[in-house]
Hints:
alpha/beta; CBS-domain; 3-stranded mixed β-sheet; Spore Coat Polysaccharide Biosynthesis Protein SpsA, Chain A; globular
Amino acid sequence: MINDNIIISQNITLLDALKIMDITQRKLLIICEGKRFIGVISIGDIQRAILRKQELTHPVMQYARKHITIASDTDDLESVKAKMRSDKIESMPIINKDGELCDVIEWEQLFPSAERAYSHQIDNPVVIMAGGKGTRLLPLTNVIPKPLIPISDKTILEEIMTRFNAAGCKRTYVSVNYMVETIKQYFEKRPQWDIEYIQESKPLGTGGSLYLLKGRINEPFFVTNCDTLVDIDLHDLVEYHKSNHNMITVVTAVKTVHIPYGTIETIVDGVIEKMREKPDLVFQVNTGMYVLQPQVLELIEDDKFLDMPDLIKLVTDKKERVGAFPVSEGSWTDMGNWNEYLALVNKFSDR
């Protein structure tokens, strides 16, 4: 049975395609006209368009994937399954001899839920910032440190580590300060997690505690807040970071703000230059996930407070590259306050 929600017209915009991906929780959509199969567009295709500063009002067909893996309606299921596993294909279009879409086989139909369609395994170190007090989640964080707040059958910290582990990242550093003994005692009873702690002597901000890793990391590494989840192909992120020679890469979420009024832009003396009727404004917002080169650690003073924006400024002041890697808004979940936390719990309950 074809999921009609992932079938789109070639004329819809990139922005609308992003919204459909968020609603359907799919990273690939099928482009058809009537029953005729036209092509596919993935989140990666849209990311590349954004990085090239293309307008999200452009039709998807301008950016659809040129090389497409499909299966025939005469192929047996085992051969389709083998192809999907070898190429890590999340959605396989099934096409008949007339070029019509007959079916779409989804990854989760054929493989265990624990097996993800990651394109490649990687083994980069992961640093999770878990030292904050979580004041926006008071009074709960008076009793439980934010990293140990449950979101399903796991704590938020365990869910973050699970996602990195599934991609191959096993080396985990956790930066701790607030209620550190509670966190350590919790994981002492769960030896399946291999954690190395970096302990602040005082609150040092989102970047300050990284000085404790000087000389211990010699390859690109992830840094993430402990209250954020990003559904992302980590291999693609690292490859983007390396191929663009970034010193820091910031994972950004594409957020749309709808203005329910006509907007006016003026130049000198109030002369109207442009008018837009009820526009959608598109921004990239910081998700709290990063990839850093190990050289960045040398810019951090020992035992000094430093937030990540300040660290990024240190890097840009040295004329080094800092890049943004965009994901759809629905790929990013934050649990920084009560409303966001309850929405995250409901999201996992629905699953």
